[in-house]
Known about the structure:
The structure holds 2 protein chains of 2 kinds. By secondary structure, chain A is mainly beta. Helix content of chain A is about 10%, strand content about 40%. Chain A is built from 3 helices and 25 strands. Chain A has a 5-stranded antiparallel β-sheet. A 5-stranded antiparallel β-sheet of chain A has the order 10-17-12-13-14, with no helix packed on it. Chain A has a 5-stranded antiparallel β-sheet with strand order 18-25-20-21-22. Chain B has one helix at about 5-25, and strands at about 45-50, 60-65, 70-80, 80-95, 110-115, 125-130, 135-140, 145-155, 175-185. In chain B, the strands form 2 sheets. A 5-stranded antiparallel β-sheet of chain B has the order 1-3-8-5-6, with no helix packed on it. Chain B has a 3-stranded antiparallel β-sheet with strand order 7-4-9, with no helix packed on it. Mean pLDDT of chain B is about 80; it is low at about 1-5 and about 15-45. The radius of gyration of chain B is 23 Å and the shape is elongated. The chains are: A mainly beta, B mainly beta. Chains A and B meet through helix 1 and strand 1 of A and helix 1, strand 1, strand 2, strand 3 and strand 4 of B.
Amino acid sequence: MRARGRLAIAAALGLTVVAAWTTATSGASFTASKSNPENSITAATSFPGIRVASGTYTGNGSDNRAITGVGFQPDVVIVKSDDNSGVAEIRTSTMTGDVTKPMSGNTALTANLIQSLDAGGFTLGNDNAVNRNGRAYHWTAFKSYTGHMALGSYTGNGTTKSITGLGFSPEYAMVLPAANTAAVQRMNGMTRTFTFGADTGSTTGITSLDGGGFSVGNSTSVNSNTATYHYIAWNQDVDEMQTSLYAGTGTSHSITGVGFQPSFVVVHANDTATGRAGAMRSSALSGTASQLFTATANESTGITALQSDGFQVGTGASVDNNGTTYHYVAFKDKP
Amino acid sequence: MTRRLPIFPAVAAIALALADAAAAFSTWDKGHDAGAPKLTLAGDKVRLVQSRAGQALIKLPNAKPGQIARGSALVTVAGHQAGVAVGAQNLQDVAGINGGKLISSRHLWIDVRCTGLRCPSPPVAYRGPLSKMGTRSLGTWQPGTARRYNVRVWLLRGARPPTNTTGDNAFQGSQAKFGLMWTATAT
Lengths: 335, 187
């Protein structure tokens, strides 16, 4: 009897231990955890965008001359002499080697102009168009920002082609042929593609600005078979890029509603009857001076001022012929 | 006739109970957050080790739309097979100068994914608005499993803002805070 009692107690103890063990190892009620607390993300008080900087220098005729102080490594640089030493020159980060595209005329990528884009600036050759001894030059530099500005290159097919994958719907596009055909541009609302010089436009250039890029026709400026083309596209943004149009009046007047004081403005007539050269003005120009893209000295009746909500045009035919429709693109630096 | 029970089995039972209690107490995970202590069992019980426990994985000031903040942690389960999960908790929005709230507007996205050779398929635990993350299963892990998880968080980049204070601009200066809780439940 005593032995049976001890056995019963031992059995009960055994069951208790087994039950406890089972509970402990079943895991049903055991959870381990670790946390990463206080993660945080704080938005900037101002969102950046494309960078735009402008400046001036005096040519010295020396090759490999570095222009510094841009403030960023540019993706695009435009240089134009204040006199008739040359046409406006443009170089993009998609161009390799010592090559630059003359913006007016049918000239292929050319050496000895803007030789490279560097950290904080760019390097010049000693071609008169960019570095003639004693002559004044103005430059404008851009740095792209994803979703706001895109650069690239493509190979033509000789028929029609769509350039896609920009990630935004551009309101302004430039195509810069590597070969000896003219650089062209199209602003939102333009009925044709125009060169930067005096022309009446083409219907087979940049044929449309699309949802994620743009389309080109078979103009040799945009789509010769097997030819290489560089492009730049900008996305309109409320406080860094604005494109619109105005009617020329033949009298000096202000174009308002841009939404910001521009750092750089490009104007081109949407004139399919009379060729009118494109004009530009950067914040580095003083007085009433502005520049044409052609090998022409600065004019004083073009874009005569950059103002708080736009810009002012004089009476020059490049910007203000009575009855002519002009399109413009205004850019603002958005660091 | 009165029978007296032997003292030895009773003492043994008490000793066993005390030993079990002591073992449980000794394995209390001191690495746990003070605010949410959990019991972790040692040895053949489930344990969770995380290489960045108690620290933030994501800290990004001055963020711009589209900019990605990245963090990474090695998560290890030991002792027992466990169901592992990760969840977002303590979500806090602080509106910026233009009133936008990153989390509640679903403007802040998170991507949590396993990286490396020992990942489950698919490796993405969650990708979407932080506000909708909740708790996401990372599957059942055998003891000894170690997996690295990358966490990426970013402000969505919207379309062109209509004004200086709307669209993406509404979120200028806004702040979001949140915690990530990794759990392993023995199965």
